[in-house]
Amino acid sequence: MIITGDDEEEIENLKKSLFQEFEMKDLGAMKYFLGIEILRSKNGIFLRQKKYVLDLLAETGLLECKPAETPIILNHGLKIEEGGKLADRGRYQRLVGKLIYLAHTRPDIAYAVGVVSQFMHQPQENHMEAALRIVRYLKGTAGYGVLLEKKEHLEIDGYTDADWASNPNDRRSTAGYFTFLGGNLVTWRSKKQKVVALSSAEAEFRGVKSGITEILWLRRLLSEIGFPPTQGSRLYCDNKAAISISENPLADILTKAVNIKFFKEVLGKLNIGDAVAQLEGECQEGKYCRR
Question: In this model, does residue 129 exceed pLDDT 90?
Answer without folding.
Answer: yes
